[in-house]
Write a structure and sequence with these properties.
77% of the residues lie in helices and 0% in strands. By secondary structure, the chain is mainly alpha-helical. The protein has a single domain, classed as MetI-like fold, CATH 1.10.3720.10. The longest helix is centred in the first third of the chain and has 34 residues. It is globular and about 70 Å long. The chain starts with a helix and ends in an 8-residue tail after the last helix.
């Protein structure tokens, strides 16, 4: 009797696959099919050649935009790390109630859409905005032009993406056993040495998780750089939209999108081999 029950419980069942069917259909219809269409257009529009990829990989304009995109994504990632690491550390040192309050304030940005937050920065950084008014009140007669610059778009992207960095680092810091820190202190480790050789390596997975997440998301940013950034310092998503909206160059835009996708997948593959994608959210 026991053997029969064991055989029944070990028999393969289709229920897990049936439960995955709606998700698989959704991804196939709304993700795989459009992605295949983009790949096909990159090779066939306006005619079946490799000219679109030749333009993207060898054109000076596209190379400059790709370099600017990666430089901006790297800058945003570094600033998010510089801002997020101390704040995440502060959350581990205060009381649970205070930590929850800080986390709530950090995640409040998720409750507002990208577009609304971007327009809010346009108001704050505009020539008639409160920041320029404060600069004039301090005695600066010719204040700098903040809006439609690399500074404004970078600042807005840091504001949008910093919560991803903070939450990843905080989730790892919370799991650090205080016994390890006390043990290092009992062995004579001072504050600087303790941080460099004990605490920082223990938080490295959170830094890696947050950095990869922020960097990859920033590579595909469209709304914020287009509305706040300088036209001379476009990012690749903005250039793709410009090519399609202004010139109807679907093939060229698709080729840029495919190249960006391949670069992003390469970054995620390297991360997966080192840490594992299952750890990307802490």
């Amino acid at each position: 009797m026991q053997a029969s029950i064991t055989r029944l419980t070990e028999r393969p069942t289709l229920w897990p696959w049936l439960l995955l069917t709606p998700l698989a259909l959704y991804l196939a219809i709304f993700f795989v099919v459009p992605l295949v269409d983009v790949v096909v257009m990159s090779f066939t529009e306006p005619k079946p050649t490799l000219s679109n990829y030749t333009h993207v990989l060898t054109g000076a304009l596209y190379q400059r935009v790709f370099i600017n995109t990666f430089a901006t994504a790297l800058l945003v990632t570094v600033v998010c790390l510089v801002v997020g690491y101390p704040l995440a550390y502060l959350m581990t040192r205060v009381s649970p109630r205070s930590a929850m309050l800080i986390l709530t304030l950090v995640t409040m940005s998720f409750w507002t859409s990208f577009l609304v937050r971007t327009y809010a920065w346009m108001v704050l950084l505009g020539d008639s905005g409160p920041i320029i008014a404060l600069v004039r009140a301090l005695g600066v007669q010719d204040p700098p032009h903040l809006l439609f610059t690399r500074f404004s778009s970078t600042l807005a992207m840091v504001h949008i993406l910093a919560p991803y960095m903070i939450m990843n680092i905080y989730s790892v810091m919370r799991k650090i056993d205080p016994v390890l820190i006390r043990s290092a202190q009992s062995l004579g480790a001072k504050s600087g040495s303790l941080f460099r050789h004990v605490y920082l390596p223990l938080t490295a997975p959170g830094i890696a998780n947050g950095s990869v997440l922020v960097f990859v998301i920033c590579l595909g940013f469209y709304v914020t750089p287009v509305l706040l950034g300088s036209p001379r310092e476009q990012m690749i998503a903005g250039l793709i939209g410009h090519q399609i909206d202004e010139f109807l160059a679907f093939g060229l835009g698709s080729a840029m999108a495919v190249v960006l996708l391949l670069i992003t997948l390469t970054i995620l593959t390297i991360y997966h081999r080192r840490f594992g994608l299952d750890k990307l959210w802490g």
